[in-house]
Amino acid sequence: MSKIEKSGRIGYNEKSGDVDLKTHDFWYDLPPGLIAQTPADRRDHSRLLVLDRAGGEIEHRHFYEIGDYLRPGGCLVVNNSRVLPARLLGEKPGGGVCELLLLEDRGDHIWECLARPGRRLPPGSRLRFGDGQLTAEIREILPDGLRLVRFDCDGIFLETLEALGIMPLPPYITETPGDPGRYQTVYAKINGSAAAPTAGLHFTPELLTSLEKKGVLRAELTLHVGLGTFRPVKTGTVEAHIMHAERYSVPPEAAETISRARAAGGRVIAVGTTSARTLESAAKNGAVAPGPGRTDIFITPGYPFQMTDGLITNFHLPESTLIMLVSALCGRERVLAAYAEAIREGYRFFSFGDAMLVL
């Protein structure tokens, strides 16, 4: 196993003989009918596949039973980022439709955006949204093809965005949920994500309260989900993929709770891959360092986890950085075997789908 360090990114490469790990090694066949189009009737009534990291044993439960696997003194680490209605449809110069997906607030009303149609939106292009309540100017094209866009509106920008923006659901979801709040976790607080940290969608206030009464600690951190989380891997080998950096923040009280739990022998359970990436990015000398940061950490098989003892997650797309992270925690073959079992049992996949607990 060789550690990869290029341009500040951190990842690991698991080799088989002299052959690098291939992106296609993380492929699996999924019947389209198992892609969840709507959330479960109740958040915590989704199914739960429990996977033992060491032996590979599998149990089939429901999410409301997750407390059976969490111990007093352990710590759930959740991402409290809130999804913005970050998709804007508007008019481009000379007529025609344009689309912006807001990814990161750079300050001074400037956002990093994914723009379509990209080739027809050069610097200087002025865009119009709604009845002109919101306008924008393309300021700069970044090396990765994203745009820096400055917005102008008469009122408060986030209020205007809430009025004009669309919830940025993944392209494989073709039905709009009746309640947009179902694409937010019950503990979402900090505006900034372009996609939901979906592992947390299964929790209800009642379930969180019952876990707290049991003695399970909870720490909230923030990673704003952007292009780094959901950009597909298009390279043939895993190590050639470059992650897009995302902003995170670990409050002092969260860092203290996590570090105290770990020091006392409690298990640190990341709720979602975003929480795991934040934990590993902020890890320092067996504890978690508080403060803001940016991370482009790429966790793949062979990575030595420093703070993450377990993971609550959904079932992820083939060949994605997310399934690679889960494979880093318990092994690629074990994960693919668990996915095959989930398919046989009719689990629902992806953002609105069922959950998986890796311990």
Structure explained in plain terms:
The chain is α+β, with helices and mostly antiparallel strands and 359 residues long. It has two domains: 2-83 and 179-358, QueA-like; 87-164, QueA-like (Thrombin, subunit H). The chain contains seven helices and 21 strands. The strands form five sheets. The chain has a nine-stranded mixed β-sheet with strand order 4-3-21-20-16-5-14-15-19. β17 and β18 (287-288) form a beta hairpin. The radius of gyration is 20 Å and the shape is globular. The two termini are 23 Å apart. The model is unreliable at 1-19 (pLDDT under 50).
Put simply, the count of helices is: 7
Rounded to the nearest angstrom, the distance between the terminal CA atoms is 23 Å
Strand content: 25-35%
* Gyration radius from CA atoms, angstroms: 20 Å
Instruction: Tell me the quaternary state.
Output: single chain
Helix content: 10-25%
Q: How many E-type strands?
A: 21
Low-confidence stretches: 1-19
What is the CATH homologous superfamily assignment of the largest domain?
QueA-like
CATH architecture of the largest domain: 3-Layer(aba) Sandwich
Output the CATH topology of the largest domain. QueA-like
Question: What sequence of helices (H) and strands (E) makes up the elements?
Answer: EEEEEEEEEEEEHEHEHEHEHEEEEHHE
Q: What structural class is derived from the secondary structure elements?
A: alpha+beta
Write down the CATH class of the largest domain: Alpha Beta
Q: Return the average pLDDT rounded to an integer.
A: 92
Q: Output the strand order for the largest sheet.
A: 4-3-21-20-16-5-14-15-19
* Count of spatially separate domains: 2
The backbone outline, from C-alpha atoms, is: globular
Biggest sheet statistics: 9 strands, mixed
